Amino acid sequence: MIIAGREILREYTKKHAQARTPIDSWVKRVEQCTCKTFAEVKRVFPTADYIKDTLIVFNVGGNNFRVLALVKYHANLLIVKWVGTHAEYDKLNL
Length: 94
Known about the structure:
Oligomer: single chain
Order of helices and strands: EHHHEEEEH
Number of strands: 5
């Protein structure tokens, strides 16, 4: 998949160096993904959860971090909307 919103990931990993390796690994897996449905995403990322519409939360780094992203399957595009810790995610009002 093509990843849009990489600047969100870059800014986060600049401030939180411990997130860099797990997020970089996640990015590589997303780039290799050619998923056309959420079921396929779930096979590649078993801990991913569907939120609403095409919004998905990905658990990254042993569930230490979470990435919220919109997935546009027809365009093979993932748009990063937010990244943070599991605790920060729990405070979001989704």
